[in-house]
Design a protein that fits this description.
Elements: H1 11-20, E1 25-29, E2 40-49, E3 56-60, E4 69-72, H2 77-89, E5 96-99, E6 112-117, H3 118-124, E7 130-133, H4 134-142, E8 146-153, H5 159-173, H6 176-182, H7 190-197, E9 199-201, H8 204-216
Parallel strand pairs: 4-5, 4-6
Antiparallel strand pairs: 1-8, 2-8, 2-9, 3-6, 3-7
Helix pairs in contact: 2-4
């Protein structure tokens, strides 16, 4: 799509560009949406889950009722806020929240657990006896799917552009086999991850889940 000047950056930087008006659209974690002036979801595609997502979990050596401290993964504000929402409303449990240092996975033990996301979470799945998949427990709590990231604009975009962008996203999803072949990941079956754990279309049920999460974000964060 020649209409796009593409910049590849970290999610937090993308959200900052949208807040500052130096970008028009970006794939951003949904916890960033309330801080973006004029934010609106502009695509039928995103990153979501309708059950286990596998890559966003609380990892622990003890069951949830025994956890006293929780490291918060510094890489994802959305996952951190989701963990806080579930602790308060689903598990109804107070724990001491710790800002995670870079090597925090090695510090998880005893009654101290940790939120781990992404590739590192998939790598840790065989190594912990208690794993609480946050998307799965969100669905158990609300009955709704969870959207982790969405294509968000800070202004209204032309309908023809949005239509062509959706077509481009759909075309990309038609090549999942090629992506898996080009990026092998021995710790976890990527065919399972991309086809079963991740959902890409943002239907009405997923948007209802997002609305519920954004309502929770209006509450003061646990500190």
């Amino acid at each position: 799509m020649q209409e796009i000047d593409l910049a590849l950056e970290y999610p937090a930087q993308i959200a900052q560009h949208l807040r500052e008006g130096t970008a028009d659209m970006g794939l951003v974690p949904v916890a960033a949406i309330p801080a973006i002036p004029g934010a609106r979801i502009v695509s039928d595609f995103g990153i979501a889950a309708t059950g286990k997502v596998a890559s966003v979990c609380i990892f622990s050596k003890v069951p949830m009722e025994e956890i006293t401290h929780l490291y918060l993964d510094y890489q994802s504000r959305t996952s951190v806020r989701l963990a806080q929402v579930l602790l308060r409303h689903y598990w109804q449990k107070e724990v001491a929240l710790l800002q995670a240092p870079e090597n925090y996975i090695g510090l998880i033990g005893g009654t101290t657990a940790g939120v781990i996301i992404g590739d590192r979470a998939l790598q840790q799945l065989p190594h912990f006896p208690y794993i609480y998949d946050l998307a799965e427990h969100w669905q158990l709590h609300t009955g709704l799917p969870f959207i982790f990231a969405a294509w968000v604009a800070n202004k209204e975009l032309p309908d023809p552009f949005v239509r062509r962008f959706n077509e481009a996203c759909a075309e990309g999803l038609a090549h999942i086999d090629e992506v898996i072949a080009e990026h092998p990941f021995p710790p976890y079956d990527l065919n399972t991850y991309y086809r079963e754990n991740i959902r890409y279309t943002l239907d009405e049920e997923k948007k209802k889940g997002l609305e519920r999460f954004l309502e929770y974000l209006k509450e003061p964060a646990i500190v």
